[in-house]
Amino acid sequence: MNALLEISDLRLHYPRVGLRATPPDVLRGVSLQIAAGETLGLVGESGSGKTTLGRAVLGLAEPSAGTILFDGADITHLSAKRRRPLAKDIQVIFQDPYSSLNPAMQIADILAEPLVAQGATAADARGSVRSLLDKVGLPADAARRYPREFSGGQRQRVAIARSLALQPRLIVCDEPVSALDLTTQARVLDLLVDIQRETGVAYLFITHDLQVVRHVSHRIAVMYQGELVETGSAAEVTSSPQNEYTRSLLLASPTADPDRQRERRELRNALRANATDLVAQSR
Amino acid sequence: MSTTNELDTVVLAEDLDSPKRAGAFRRLLRNPLGIGALITLTAIIVLGQSAPLFGVHEPAFSSLDAVNAPIGTPEYLLGGDQYGRDILARLLFSINVSLISGAIGAGVSIVIGTVFGLIAGYIGRTTDAVTSWVFNLLMTFPALVLVLVLYPVTGGSYQIMMVIFGIFLAPGTYRLVRNMVVGVRSELYVDAARVAGLSNRRILSRHILFVVRGPIIISVAFLASSAIGIQAGLAFLGLGSTLVPSFGSMTGDAFANIYLHPEQLVWPSLLLALLTGSVILLGNAYRDALAGPQTPVRRKRTAPPLARREGASSAEATTPTAALLSVRNLRVRYPQADGGEKYVVDGVSLDVAPGEVVGLVGESGSGKTQTAFSILGLLPPEAGVEADVLSLAGESLLGVSPKEMRRLRGGVVAYIPQEPMSNLDPSYTVGNQLVEGLLSSMSRREAKRTVLELLERVGIRDPDRVFASYPHQISGGMAQRVLIAGAVASRPKLLIADEPTTALDVTVQAEILDLLRSLQNEFGMGVLMVTHNFGVVADLCDRVVVMRDGRAVETGAVRDIFHHPSEEYTRELVGAILDEETVRTDPAPAPGAPSAKEATR
User: Fold this and answer.
1) Is B350 helix (H, G, I), strand (E, B) or coil?
2) Are B582 and A215 in contact (CB under 8 A)?
3) What is the C-alpha separation between A203 and B588, in angstroms, rounded?
4) Is residue A207 within 8 angstroms of chain B, CB to CB?
5) Contact between residue B361 and residue B547 where contact means Cβ atoms under 8 Å apart
6) Between chains, do B196 and A117 touch, taking CB under 8 Å as contact?
7) Do residues A241 and A247 lie in contact, with contact meaning Cβ atoms separated by under 8 Å?
8) Average pLDDT value for residue range A94-104
9) Where would I find the beta strands (DSSP E) of B301-433?
10) Is B459 left (phi over 0), alpha (psi -120 to 50) or beta?
11) pLDDT tens digits for B32-60?
12) What Cα–Cα distance (Å) separates residue A103 from each residue in A97, A99, B6, B60?
């Protein structure tokens, strides 16, 4: 086994509020692995726990059971101090490029910040800002501007540049293109794939959009109500799904062709009618 | 994209064009109230600091010759008090006492409140609960009484009294800071900073304190003025060393003398009022500067009614008689910061036939939402709308009164928004909000029955429960069904849907699209579907209008747009669709054995 990230039987519930009963598990025993340089697409509807899984890997949510191994070391419950050096290896790109950049900071400061936090001098950090901007296709004069001066797609490029600053080995991408326009989406996805080929970084790519995940993922894991219902290569999961839920998810996603979409719609309705029949029979 | 976002882009473009935006301080100086308060305050401070330079007497020096000396007596410009002390001297030296009181009171409160507010708000949980409890307890103490009781301990030193008073002011600051920090803490950039390995201290100082500093600065003004007032009050009551001159002790002395020399009361009261007044007004002006417009103030004006443009060619203006909605050469303009105007919609023409679904497609900022909103008459007042033809079900919308427009919106045309949740009022039940819209045409009982039927029609399994629920108790998909029910309640002829599924999951999206299709079939509505999702277009639309930069680039039947787009931009858009066949096939560039990967679960 040489997985870069190995999650076994991860469970998580949010802390109890007051005297109420223990809330239900958001994650109900999730196990997955990501190899170095690989993209694992994590698909599911909202509330399925996919974002929580990402946050647990990042140390932003506290698992109640199970383990997360990174490069063989247990990182499930690290203290804030012991987690800090891990920033060099694990980074993040969030969904919302509007709230993920501090509006009061210049782009150069945003990009230099992780480097300074890891002990680089301010001058060195400033020096690498230019190459980071170059890597994500932003002009050098972007450094002295503020986030509000950029469009959503450009902001997301800044967020990508920030995540690359420390040359991590794993980036958790939480719906990185969901807030973007179609053409921008395609460009940002291409950028992410290019960066992966160049640097060998691994992605945990969280999304609800199967079209998107199909384009960037080597493997796909489908999550439903806190559990993985299906895991397999991108081609397998999207062309011959084994699980009922995966199938309905695939059929629900509208395709950009009026005739094929009609077929898909009818298939989906048939599948649903089938399911209702089954329920009716079992009663 | 929602309207707010599109409006944002308009403002953003202005920002880029205009030179560097003025900072809050510069805007403060441009505010007459702000600059006035600042000058007054500075003058008072300078007077206080330079008191010894005026060559006045020692404030405590008393001379029998000067007892109740009139104004203008040599060496006693403002006269003497009943103990023969120089009123001007006492006045000038009192300034410093007041300023120091304000600084100590506000300073202690801000330091304690901010430090604990930051810690409690950021760490949360037990720390937050314990600190909040302590500060709440502190709040219940009557501060003034305690300062009086502790008088023997403080020994009459006004500085120590102000420290104690500052401590009792701290809960206000604490609550302010804590609540703001709780709001900022969940911002994604704070999470990103944590992932980037920043220490808590660095996150607090660089990310959080920076964002919450504005309101703290403003509250300093109010805290300082209240400390100054309290110090004056205590001194007026005679608490504190009689050797220290202060506005309070001066008013106290003058008060005792009020029947003989009422003018002695004027000076300390006037200066005290000027001092606290200018501090408060400065705080207010700063608040206005922070909240104020980021761009120079726009000329205020009311929305001009939709104007028919002169000289429209007759060919353009011909309306196909069959059209339910007919738009010719629609233009929407916004006034710009530099006094010019910008057209965000520039000559759009489109038709929707009865029972037809037309997709309005484009990227954010292309003007598609602005187009939809100008048909609904929902644009902000500063927008200027003009068109050659804008008619709905045979009625022209050009020049209709707002009242008439409301009638149309209620009956002929209905609207489904992008964000279902933000379009429901959280303080009323779902049923209440739906019934409200029907009351003009039927009784409450009848309206309730209609709403329940509609809720069932839009696929809600338990209409009674949803009817009685508050918006936060239902899911996003359910909320969108509720809004659809509300939109079709009046059997509209035209339904305008602005990205109705963008905020929803694919599975819910599919259900909502199914619902829209079946309702559209049943009622024979025309639908104008604003979207950037080509999957949605392919699913529902008969015809498509592609927009870019405020213009309609291409209009055509849905299959033509997808299979034979004639314009370059449409080709580019269609080309950007992530197609279904492409699956990533290049292997992961991992040096390890790829077979290990399949062992999961």
Assistant:
1) strand
2) yes
3) 11
4) no
5) yes
6) yes
7) yes
8) 84
9) 307-308, 325-335, 341-352, 357-361, 384-387, 389-392, 395-396, 413-416
10) left
11) 888 999 999 999 999 888 887 877 788 88
12) 11, 8, 19, 54
Query: Can you tell me the mean pLDDT for A140-162?
Result: 86
Q: How far is CA B327 from CA B348, B350, B400, B553, in A?
A: 7, 5, 15, 15
Q: Which residues of B touch A141 (CB under 8 A)?
A: none
* Amino acid identity for residue A35 in this structure: A
Structure confidence by residue, pLDDT tens digits, B268-294: 999 999 999 999 999 888 888 876 544
In 3D space, the residue among A262, A205, A256, A254 whose CA is nearest the CA of residue A234 turns out to be: A205
Asked if B394 and B326 touch (Cβ cutoff 8 Å), the reply is no
For B448-470, the DSSP string reads HHHHHHHHHHTT-S-HHHHHT--
The pLDDT, as a whole number, for residue B334 is 85
CA atoms within 13 A on the CB side of B592: 15
Q: Does A48 touch chain B (CB under 8 A)?
A: no
Mapping DSSP to helix (H, G, I), strand (E, B) and coil, where does residue B377 land? coil
Mean pLDDT (whole number) for B428-434: 89
Helix (H) or strand (E) holding B487: helix B476-488
User: What ranges do the domains of chain B cover?
Assistant: 32-48+90-291
Q: Check whether A5 has a pLDDT greater than 80.
A: yes
3-state secondary structure B283-322: HHHHHHHHHCCCCCCCCCCCCCCCEECCCCCHHHHCCCCC
- Whether B20 has its CB under 8 Å from any CB of chain A: the answer is no
pLDDT of B534 strictly over 90: no
**Token representation of residue A58:** 């990042």
CA distances from B595 to A3, A30, A61, B196 (A): 11, 20, 31, 32
B482 within 8 A of B452, measured Cβ to Cβ: no
* CB < 8 Å to B194, chain A: 59-60
Per-residue pLDDT at B171 exceeds 90: yes
Do the Cβ atoms of B525 and B517 come closer than 8 Å?
no
- Closest alpha carbon to B333 in B322, B346, B320, B323: B346
**Quick one: pLDDT band at residue A18, thresholds 50, 70, 90?**
low
Tell me the pTM.
0.75
Report the percentage of chain B scoring pLDDT > 90: 19
pLDDT at A46 over 90: no
**Chain B residues within an 8 Å CB radius of A210:** 506
Alpha-carbon distance of B117 to B112, in angstroms, equals: 8
Decide which of 1.10.3720.10, 3.30.450.20, 1.10.10.60, 3.40.50.20 is the CATH code for B32-48+90-291: 1.10.3720.10
- Do residues B414 and B492 make contact, with C-beta atoms less than 8 angstroms apart? yes
Instruction: Provide the mean pLDDT of chain B.
Output: 81
Distance to chain B for A217, nearest Cα, Å: 6
User: What count of other Cβ atoms lies within 10 Å of the Cβ of residue B64?
Assistant: 8
List B359's β-bridge partners, or say none. Answer: B529, B544
Q: Is B128 helix (H, G, I), strand (E, B) or coil?
A: helix
Residues B497 and B562: their CA atoms lie apart, in Å, by: 21
User: What's the per-residue H, E or C state across B169-189?
Assistant: HHHHHHHHHHHHHHHHHCCHH
A1-89+197-238 architecture in CATH?
3-Layer(aba) Sandwich (3.40)
Task: Tell me the C-alpha distance between B289 and B297, whole Å.
Answer: 12
Q: What is the pLDDT of residues B356-370, one digit of tens each?
A: 999 998 887 788 888
Does residue B309 carry a pLDDT above 60?
no
pLDDT of amino acid A283:
54
**Which residues of chain A lie closer than 8 angstroms to B509, CB-CB?**
252, 254
Per-residue pLDDT at A279: 59
Query: Is B182:B239 a contact under the CB 8 Å cutoff?
Result: no
For chain A, give every domain's residue range: 1-89+197-238
